Write a sequence for this structure.
């Protein structure tokens, strides 16, 4: 998969930009606050409809403007497609593939599979479970359209059930209607649990291998899926938890509370790992994703690396760079020194300055 070109209008600090990308390593460099991350954000958004930094659509629109537009030309399976995304201040975004509007973001997912890697991702192991669920969802949604649509439906039903829990506080007679939402939660949620479990199982040997390589064979990493509830107990646990849910006014059971547990040499890396071990585990997971996408989708993903090299030691930098040599990669950095030192071959170098990009 490739991103041939991106066009931005009134996106973040870009008024108007047309930027072609090379097939190999694309390096964006420039001082702080010039628009490097904004550019990666636009690429990520147009591939996934999700914001890289959890921003709202209106924050992505250039100050003082009402609309933003991102147009990308992407290649999937040898065919070129055009993706257009319109962001509006107070309305949902509009997305079209080859000029045909799509109704659900699931239709876009996977057209071009991107794997983003930012400094925050390196902290994935020490953060709460939400970060690790985000990892699962981002990957599965791009690889598996059924997962994506089940997740969207699950989240909608969950929201509706939570709204109902709040209403029951004022009107207890509504309590009987909870079961309608429970049935749907179990239907969508069980499928999510099954797909997450098999994804983590498939990921395990690959992550293990990457981590062993990065740690010089000294560390054994084990990854396991830690579901909040298993599919066989799901319906029952929802019923048993109803009074507690009513008290909390939120649903406490289901895959929205899942986690992935990671141990290094049999110790939970989140609780006992050093910062280096936690970062290495996160890097291993990202590298494993690349292999898994190749295996499952049969094409290489596009890698977005935001300022991440400077956060790694030399050995991990070299390992990361050796994995990307046949991928389309867009890398941001503030200076060129690290690339010169690492002797990384680059196909295109761009200088980013105050919302403009100059090819060098
Ligand atoms: N909606 C917006 N409209 C206009 N400008 C914006 C908007 N949102 C953010 N910016 C500007 O974009 C700039 C930040 O861009 P970005 O995060 O891409 O910087 P960067 O080049 O990645 O910097 P760093 O090296 O510090 O990571 C800031 O100056 C910010 O004011
Ligand atoms: Mg940045």
């Amino acid at each position: 998969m490739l991103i041939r070109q991106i066009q931005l209008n009134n996106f973040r600090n870009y008024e108007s930009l047309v930027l072609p990308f090379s097939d190999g390593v694309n390096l964006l460099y420039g001082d702080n606050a010039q628009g490097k991350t904004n550019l990666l954000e636009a690429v990520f958004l147009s591939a996934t409809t999700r914001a890289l930094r959890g921003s709202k659509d209106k924050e992505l629109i250039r100050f003082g403007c009402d609309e933003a537009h991102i147009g990308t030309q992407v290649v999937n399976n040898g065919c070129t497609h055009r993706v257009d995304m319109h962001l509006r201040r107070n309305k949902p975004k509009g997305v079209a593939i080859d000029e045909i509007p799509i109704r659900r973001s699931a239709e876009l997912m996977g057209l071009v599979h991107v794997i983003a890697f930012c400094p925050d991702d390196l902290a994935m192991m020490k953060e709460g479970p939400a970060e690790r669920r985000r990892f699962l969802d981002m990957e599965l949604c791009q690889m598996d359209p059924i997962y994506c649509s089940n997740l969207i439906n699950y989240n909608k039903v969950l929201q509706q059930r939570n709204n109902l829990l709040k209403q029951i506080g004022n009107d207890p007679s509504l309590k009987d209607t909870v079961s309608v939402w429970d049935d749907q939660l179990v239907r969508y949620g069980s499928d999510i649990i099954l797909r997450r479990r098999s994804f983590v199982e498939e990921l395990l040997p690959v992550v293990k291998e990457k981590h062993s390589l990065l740690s010089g064979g000294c560390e054994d990493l084990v990854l396991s899926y830690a579901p909040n509830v298993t599919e066989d107990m799901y319906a029952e646990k929802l019923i048993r938890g109803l009074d507690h849910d009513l008290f909390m006014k939120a649903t406490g059971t289901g895959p929205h509370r899942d986690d992935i547990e990671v141990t290094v040499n049999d110790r939970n890396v989140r609780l006992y790992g050093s910062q280096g071990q936690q970062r290495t585990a996160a890097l291993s997971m990202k590298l494993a994703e690349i292999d898994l996408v190749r295996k499952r989708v049969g094409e290489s993903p596009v890698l977005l690396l935001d300022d991440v090299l400077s956060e790694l030691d030399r050995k991990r930098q070299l390992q990361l760079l050796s994995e990307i040599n046949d991928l389309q990669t867009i890398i941001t950095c503030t200076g060129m020194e690290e690339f010169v030192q690492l002797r990384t071959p680059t196909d295109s170098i761009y200088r980013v300055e105050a919302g403009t990009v100059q090819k060098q």
